[in-house]
Design brief:
Number of helices: 3
Structural class: alpha+beta
Shape: rod-shaped
Oligomer: single chain
Length: about 190
């Protein structure tokens, strides 16, 4: 009987060992399954995050493109409007003798000195010119204004030059509108 008991004991130990192995295998399978679920969940979250980031990047690019396009169109419109206003102003200034004379007198009093030679441009019917200036008989072509001759040096106070400076100032304003992030760092074109 000892052999029978020994056989039974080995059989029972084998069954216990088998059950232990199956329990361990089931635990390992559960751990692997749980690890797989976590990994899949992490990969899904990573994929979703990547998609969100990609979408946000595309959205930012589109916003920037639209803002740039808007600013460009606005700049073109402002530029056209500025040109029209400046041309209308020049025409008005030339046609209004009182205003034109006042403009000439203000420039002469601010920049002219005794003995300077004045060469008029366009129209020369300026009233009440200070006798301390030498008025040149030469009248140059152009919209209006004058040159101050100081020896070989000529200072340009023509209406064309004045309008060029006004246009440059307005272009700088438009540049600031188009590139607001550079407004403070770069003031020149």
């Amino acid at each position: 009987m000892a052999l029978e008991e020994l056989k039974k004991k080995i059989h029972n130990e084998a069954i216990e060992k088998k059950e232990q192995i199956l329990r361990n295998a089931e635990i390992q399978a559960q751990q692997i399954l749980e690890h797989g679920r976590v990994k899949v969940k992490d990969e899904k979250e990573t994929a979703i995050t990547r998609q969100k980031d990609l979408y946000n990047l595309k959205l930012q690019r589109e916003k920037s493109r639209l803002k740039l396009e808007h600013n460009r169109k606005l700049g073109v419109l402002k530029s056209k409007y500025m040109e029209q206003v400046i041309e209308e102003f020049a025409s008005y200034l030339i046609q209004n003798d009182e205003l034109y004379n006042m403009w000439i007198h203000n420039l002469l009093s601010a920049y002219g000195k005794f003995g300077d030679e004045i060469v008029f441009v366009g129209k020369a019917n300026i009233l009440n010119i200070n006798s301390s200036f030498v008025i040149s008989p030469e009248i140059r072509q152009g919209l209006g204004g004058f040159y101050i001759k100081k020896g070989r040096l000529e200072l340009n106070f023509t209406l064309e030059e004045f309008l060029r400076w006004v246009k440059l100032e307005k272009r700088l304003e438009i540049y600031g509108l188009l590139f607001p992030e550079r407004k403070d760092s770069e003031k020149t074109i």
